[in-house]
Amino acid sequence: MPDASAALRALIVEDDRSWQQILSEILTDAGLEVDIVNNVEDAITSLRSVSHRLAVVDLALGDGNYDNQDGLCVLDAVRRQDPGCVTLMLTGFATVELAVSVLTEYGAFSCLRKETFNRTEFRTLVRQALASAPPIKTLVPTDNIVKIPSKDMEVNTFLASGIVLVVEDDAGWRTILSELLTDAGYQTRLCTSFGEALGCLRRETYTLAVVDLSLAGFDHPDEFSETQPISEDILGGYQLLATTRASRIPTIVVSGVATPDNIERAYREQNVFAYLEKQTFDRRTFLQTVKEAHNASSADTALQLLTQREQEVLMLLAQGMTNKEIAGTLVITTNTVKRHLKAIFSKLEVHTRAAAAAKAITAGILV
Length: 367
Prior knowledge:
Elements: E1 9-13, H1 17-29, E2 33-37, H2 40-49, E3 54-58, H3 70-81, E4 86-91, H4 96-104, E5 110-113, H5 119-131, E6 163-167, H6 171-183, E7 187-191, H7 194-203, E8 208-211, H8 236-246, E9 251-255, H9 260-270, E10 274-277, H10 283-303, H11 308-318, H12 323-330, H13 334-348, H14 353-362
Parallel strand pairs: 1-2, 1-3, 3-4, 4-5, 6-7, 6-8, 8-9, 9-10
Helix pairs in contact: 2-3, 7-8, 11-13, 11-14, 12-13
């Protein structure tokens, strides 16, 4: 076991000398004694010999080999050999899938891209990592420090507009969600707590909301069993769902709190658009869900422009009725039906009966 007396040491696992120097300078300035190694074997030896408070690990330790992922072996060794050590992954080859794996499976504090490395932001992240409770998840609010590239997004990517509220207290997850939404064409407002998010909701209008249920400032759900429902009283994100529902903001939950009862409650009581589990997070599924939520929101907004009579005409149209049948049901003339349809098509920005019916169905106008 490591010697616990050396509590303020940092381990750098990096095979590039220039990066070794950059990281060493920053960590030394932070008051840490620094050990530097360039391969898995030496990293394991160091972890066994002395305890470290922080480890900064490069993904590829194979001298420019893009397929090398020895850094993951180091993260796994840290968990087994030195569980009190907080880990940061630093790589030039990050993908969304990799970042999710680093955060959820290997328990890293964050995953950073070398291409967007910023000394000042890294110093801030180091301070936050050192102050956090090791090792897996931080409940300390952090800034959006790193951009993780999302590649091969052509299947579900669509250019959108509007502002999405992201409520997530984990730095890595906040970055992943923000990156995906930005690439899809949205602006994002990033919040780390219930109070911050509530303030944003009162000041601004949002197209969508993406909310984690367990937020900083509330009891951590890990103390509960996996099968026992978690009360909404201890989940800051759950309390936000009532606000987004009242504001008619389609809301996607992305959370590690995923008992069947909690999921069912979020759908039944708060009418969330979708509930995605972090444990099985998939980039394409998330983007497709965002697209569907956006379309439903757009249709709902357009329907609000319709008069009560126009909504009645649209509902009967969506049920497959002809103009004559609509006229008979509403006790109006067919010419009046045609005038209403012309106004409906204009407000919904469609040109066919089928397109108008589709918008009505998407917005849930049919019971």
